Amino acid sequence: MPVQLLKITKEQFETLLPSHLQKEDLHHLQEDCDHTNKYIQGIVVLSYPLTKLRDGTDFFKIVLQGLDDWGSRVDSINILIYGKMAEDCAKVLRHGDTFIVAGFKVMKSPTAREDGRHGCHLEVSEEAGSAIYSVAPKYVYTPLNQLKDGTTVNLYGVVKFFKPPYVSKGTDYCSVVTLVDPSNAKLMCTLFNGNPDFLPKIYKVGDIVRFHRIKIREYNGQMQGVTSAGFASLTFDGTVGAPVVPRTSSKMYTFMDEEHKTIKELRVWAASNISIPGPATKLSGVQPMLFFDLTCHLVGKAKVDGSSFLLKVWDGTKCPYPTWRVPVEAKDLEGQKVLLRQLRDLMVDILVYDNHVQLAKSLKIGSFLRIYSIHAKQASADNEDGSHIEFHLHGGTCYGRGIGVLPESNPDVKELKALLESVDLADSQNMESMSSEELDDTFSDFTDFESYLQRYRQLSVTVLTDHQYLNDTELRTIMNSTAPQQYRIRAKLRTYKPQKLHQSVKLYCSKCNSLQEVPDGDEFGFILQRSAVTAPNPELQDTSWYDSVMWTTQGQKQRTIVIHFVRHDEMVPQVENTLLMIEGGTLKEVWKLAKRFKCVIPVRSTEDDLELLDLSAPFLLQGNVKYYGCKQCSAPKPIRNLSSIAAEQHPSWEPAEIAQVLGIVLLQYVFIMKFTLVDGTGALNAYLFDDEKFFQIPASEILTNSFLQEKMQMTMNILCPPGRKLADLPWLECFIKSYNVRDAMKHQVCYQIFDTTVAEDVV
């Protein structure tokens, strides 16, 4: 029997359990006794991360504290859950939940002396016929005008603004939503998850959401919501009279009858208090320079270059203007060629950039999409045919730019499908007789990529982010002026160093202004190997603020590995929020843990405490990023100082905060490059010293992310196209500042680029 979530109050559950089951007290549990028709009840006081046994079986461990007849907490017992039931329990169980288990096997506990719990433990699994019931709590919902800093609440709200899920600067997807409710308050929520399907399924302004366990923080005098451990959401169509059907990826959730009333009341309130957009724009209604949302059907897609991606879509109507055909090779285009030919006059090309590319690549042909804030850009053609319209989904998320996939059950999709089915796709041409050359010609209206780059030759491919009051200054004038000063220039990039872009990434210490190379993985592996020689100290395991798990590897070279899971509120958080420390792990094992858990810190045992490894190794791993400390400026402190963060109400485990309590001066990943700039009056070398603003790429992620590496290379190929004459190079608008460099032997004036970023359409 799978895990069952009873949608009742704690007072009602006994009347709904199977009649043959009788309650058993924990202190009556013994081995070799018949507990077939018994159940035990208690409160979940501790849970461990879901893991897998050596044979691949899922395993989940919780600690249950029993209740006596007066509701007081008494004995506690370990419950070991196996298989599919373990996976289900890990998803639904929360600290403090009331938990009922039947069909269990009672076994002697080998850890009773160490953990002080019941002398037996319970083993349960679906294969053994076990049954688990989790009693649904009675949720209290907080109006938006009563939110307080530092609390974790449940709430309802109407969507006033949202950004569809997009790839954040880390490894997660992010969605932003602004909510309002009848209390006339507003709440902006920033939501993260490694899987975009687990973020709220919001399709339009006016949708209604229910958030459980959202953390509230005050920032600049405004309340904001962020995801916390156990965050869950339901989304409902906000249209008055629409069916009350929740959208969610979770298979387990509670939705009481009285909540139907809440949804209906919010719909009525929103209808007269929220400015809800009318029907989405059709292609037949598009006008030049318009930004619009489009509900459409995906019929083709193709890679264009490293920084952009093509989507071919239609909505059953025809754009009244000539539209741009993006040049791609036929071999790169996905989709049914016959259908693409039939829809040639109805489909349009949408070029998507930057953070939208990864999602666009994952879309399946035939999906129904809602693309938000498409730019209908009017462009003049080089030939006599006149102007045409180009469709761009620019990078970034301003104005809610993004792509959402709609299910076929969505009302707008049903309407769109009916329209598409009514369109006559009969084509007078015999597609069977068309040659491959004729078909290939369908997919490219340009002979090469020349026309794509042409647009960048006169317009600047960089954007100034400040100091707009400055006028352009010739390079000749700058080189004849004294330093320090700031200038605005318009120049071309003749060459740059290093040509191997990965060599541009360095580690920088803001305290001593030193630069160093990023250590390679082999050096880290050797340090881990040397540290594994130090035997773990058993006295440093299972302390007041972390739980420890130790095992010995098999084979000739046996190693002892210890993982310490940092607790919060007396329990180990969910995997994505857990910081762990590891002793004796290999490089492969450490990376595997870093991809699954929030943070990983490699440590070794001393007599009194755990300590960090040599600072030649990263002191912290988070996702694909290794964080290093400055050897010269750091003064490492004992690992036990981390307990101060664990004791916070909502520990964030940010690298800067971890570094501070451990006495580490954090090194920053930066790009260091030399640009040779020319403008017809002179040439000068300007240094780029930047962490992520110029390329809009985090320097900390470029070394481990092939997509970002390709994006950076494509960006440089546009800024400085290889093999092209100086006249064909694009213009760059930049701010540069001059500064003096002196030593005992000479004085030199140097130049640095600042407050400049690559244009959105380039990246």
From TrEMBL:
GO molecular function: G-rich strand telomeric DNA binding; telomerase inhibitor activity
Family annotation (Gene3D superfamilies): Nucleic acid-binding proteins (2.40.50.140)
SMART domains with a match to the protein in the record: Telo_bind (SM00976)
InterPro entries (alphabetical): NA-bd_OB-fold, POT1, POT1_C_insert, POT1PC, Telomer_end-bd_POT1/Cdc13
All residue ranges annotated as the Telomeric single stranded DNA binding POT1/Cdc13 domain in the record: 141-271
Pfam annotation, one family: POT1_C_insert
Localization, UniProt: Chromosome, Telomere; Nucleus
GO BP annotation list: regulation of telomere maintenance via telomerase; telomere capping
Keywords, alphabetical: Chromosome, DNA-binding, Nucleus, Telomere
Protein family (similarity comment): Belongs to the telombin family.
Name this polypeptide is given: Protection of telomeres protein 1
Source species: Onychorhynchus coronatus
